[in-house]
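Our platform keeps sequence and structure together, in a single record for each protein. This encoding replaces a full spatial description with a residue-level series of whole-number codes. We quote a single record here, exactly as it is kept in our systems:
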Amino acid sequence: MNFKRSINLVTLFLILSLLVITGGVMAQDFPVTITDGLGEKVVVEEKPDKIISLSPQTTENLFAVGAGKQVIGVTTYADYPKKATKVDKI
């Protein structure tokens, strides 16, 4: 899998996670099929319950929308909010 595809998939799952957390997609709405940035369809079979954030900005946004309890991994640069410093580093 190339880097661009990896970033697109991470972005796709982040958006899906935010939709689930904020109520845009309900648990009964799964599976969800989404077309990624490369035009390929990705099927998410069930609601994600764990999130790994690959950028400090994403980490901050996840905590801001109330998904902090679902974040199980962050980068070593994620230092805000303070709770993000207690999450496992990847």
Remarks:
- The first helix runs from residue 3 to 22.
- The helical segments are 3-22, 56-64.
